[in-house]
Structures
1.
Amino acid sequence: MWTDGYKYIPTCGAVAMKIVALISQKGGAGKTTLAVHLASRAAADGRTTAIIDLDPQATAASWGDRRVANAPEVVSGQAVRLPALIKAAEENGAEFLVLDTAPNADQTASLAARVSDLVLIPCRPAAFDLEAIETTLLLAKAAAKPAYVVLNAVPPRSSIGKEAAEGLSGRGAQVAPYSLTQRAAFAHGVIDGRTAQEFEPNGKAAQEIDQIYKWLCGLVDMPTRRHARKAA
Ligand SMILES: Nc1ncnc2c1ncn2[C@@H]1O[C@H](COP(=O)(O)OP(=O)(O)O)[C@@H](O)[C@H]1O
Ligand SMILES: [Mg+2]
């Protein structure tokens, strides 16, 4: 069931619900970071947005508990209930649904990928992370959904991100044209249930989220609004 505090916020020009799954076998890759930032960005764009947190660690759900703003709605759930939760999101008018998953390439991640319009695979540009990504790429391929690696926590002022992207492309992976840099705002902003863009609205972290958000809107065919607005 959807939580009590859920409010349907009607938006003009509503679109059919788009689902984006964050999957990666590696812990600490940035699944939850991307989930909460992209969902909040969509909410600020006037999209009725929800996150389903499928990770038993419930990091996104705890973030939602700390959050003062009503949007995005964050619901904790198990894979077995995913179809029912997706239906509830749709019935509650959700236009943008983000699935955050545990660091596993298991049945839950596979199910999340299969029900999604787009799979994002966050990955740090570090040797162990790049090595471990293969299983996740195979899982996304089996789901037959558009899947992109999003490089995350890229060291600033270095060629490491570019080299990692080239290496991944060479292995046949699709790499998002935008990445997230290692920035304090991404970690600090979430402490009290906010996001980097709310913590530092004109900061570089906010700009990076903006770029990825607009890029993914193009992929899932969800028009962006001209002016971002504050989450309700
Ligand atoms: N781009 C970034 N810059 C700074 N810190 C980051 C960045 N991405 C993630 N982190 C931090 O790294 C840790 C792991 O990120 P998280 O999103 O929880 O990974 P996952 O959900 O894949 O396990 C968190 O403490 C998060 O705040
Ligand atoms: Mg997580």
2.
Amino acid sequence: MNGNSSKQSQATNPCSLKPAFGLTTNLIMGRTARQDKKTFKLLLIAPKGKKDSKSNQQPLFNMAIGVLVSITPPEYDIEIADEHFNDQINYDGEYDLVGITSRTIDASRAYEIADLFRQKGKRVILGGLHVSFNPDEAQAHANSIVCGEAENLWSTVLDDAAGNRLKPLYNSLDFPPVTKIAPLDYVRIAKASKRGKIDGTKSIPIYITRGCPFECSFCVTPNFTGKLYRTQDPEELKKQIETAKEVFFKKTRRASKPWFMLCDENLGINKKKLWEALELLKGCNINYSVFFSMNFLEDPETVKRLVDSGCLMVLVGFESIKQSSLEAYNKGHVNSAEKFKRVIDECRQAGLNIQGNFLINPDLDSFKDMDDLVQFVGRNNVFMPIFQIITPYPGTKMYQEYTKKGLITDYDWDKYNASNLVIHSASYEPVAFQHKFLSSYYKAYSWKNIVNRVRKNPYKFLNLITSLAFRKNIEEQLDTFERNHNIRK
Ligand code: B12
Ligand code: SF4
């Protein structure tokens, strides 16, 4: 997302499974298929894993579902059920096809839903990041699975479903590469999701670019969208933003502008393109947040342009404040805790919040290092800090390496939320390590830290509500963990 790696990705391989069949073109459509499409009912589901995040960072809809809705031909009738918004799933609905997306954290729930629909005789298609890298596992739960990006294969899938000839696997490698970004159809998404208007404290997702040319070992992107870095057509993007405002935004006294969450994997890969994008956003009169690379934040002109274009906060992958850990992540030559301090402070002066993302690695970081990190975020009033235990997500280079060495200790996908230790640790007993992690994370949201954060940072209300939501979420996780492991406070 913002790993800021300098190595170029060599390969884009969205599916670890070799194609089970040749080119899946289905250009000839029978008459029956055309007629069927008129009444074809599609249900698209975003499942919510048992340990999925409860933070208020959750944008208004899941991007995979948003894209699928937008690329579905207009004659199909679509309904969305998103469990992150407590939408109820109607297992008895008259659906012709049920499509379910998956991230690793939601995969077990996706399979549970798929199994229930299949028991009711409904056809189920599974897709998304997790399924793309675990096709064998997923195939047991679906009539059909999709590996890789859907943009260039979805119409074939729908034709095949309408013509009753759905194949067990559709692999994006069998279709032309996705070189363009599909514009989001906000009107149709609103209709299918029945999501109402929101104020400026909740975010509307959008993206300007997709892909990233770098190769961080803990990130899925190099093996998924990878090198195919694409940018939206500026006019098309402006239109989408205007429509999204009309459809989803309601002005309030506290927030006169809508908040967009830029879901780009890496918005800034070079300064010229980045400045062009910021210029465009400036003309849209919105607020937004974005994943961002540390190196651009050292440039005061870029920071100024971010602020002028409505950027409220950037999420930066600091990864660690310990130099030897930064070196292990291949970032030691460019980053240091001193530099982080300076950049956080300069951005704050310029009116920009920096949300810091920190990785905790049992092989690199000690309990004392966790204490140092808590002190660092407190002293520097880091806005909405995120602590994550290093997690080898399927699809990453790290996952391949850990699997090869036999270092993954837990394949319960529900635990892949970066708050659980799922890898072997040579130095720590897992329960003690995780308890120390959760209590440190909770301390980063102590009342004292929250008060200082709100006082010192720009956008005080945003700082307050996000801090309270994070505190509550982490407190619940810590309480549950202590209860489950009989740990007394
Ligand atoms: C934006 C973003 C977020 C946003 C979510 C925005 C949203 N509403 O969707 C926020 C900040 C909330 C977020 C949170 C988290 N994220 Co995140 N996030 C991203 C990011 C940068 C972009 C995701 C995106 O918008 N993609 C655009 C959509 C269109 O792509 P897509 O989902 O892959 O869908 C395409 C295909 O997969 C396919 N497809 C998908 N589903 C289906 C279904 C069917 C039926 C079909 C046919 C096709 C299909 O078609 C789509 C179009 O081509 C990715 C990076 C990445 N490479 O994806 C990380 C990423 C998805 N996140 C990741 C993680 C780990 C998390 C968290 C767990 C972090 C945490 N500890 O809390 C949480 C989980 C919350 C959750 N349930 O998603 C990992 C997931 C790894 C994995 N194997 O699952 C990624 C890949 C980053 C990484 N480390 O590599 N994230
Ligand atoms: S998107 Fe992934 S590969 Fe690209 S810089 Fe961010 S973390 Fe690294």
3.
Amino acid sequence: MEYCPGCLSNTLRIAGSGIVQILINDRPKDNARVLFNTNKMDQFAEDLEKRLDDFLKWLSEFKNLEAQKRVQVLTNDFKCSNDCRIPMNVKFSIVGVLITKTKLDAMLGKLGLKYSMDLKIKDS
Ligand SMILES: [Zn+2]
């Protein structure tokens, strides 16, 4: 559980809908974003896998990149139950929130095989 940067309490919860950003080795990519709606989580997992696949396909075209790739999936779309404003630049991982670690690990395992990459979740 993340702490609210405003009141420093354990009061954050995910918004009902929003957008997540994928970073690989701390780098973003223009369209590496996925919408989420907490009522449509199967759709989210599907869309996330598709965007990850696009990102990795793009990365696989470059030579001499780090063999190890650390993946983060972050969002600013959390709400504090004390109504604090969360600054736009503060982002939290959605692992364990919008997707289980097990499911994301499995997704990265599958895509890692497809692109011969060492993919792991980066703890943020
Ligand atoms: Zn707060």
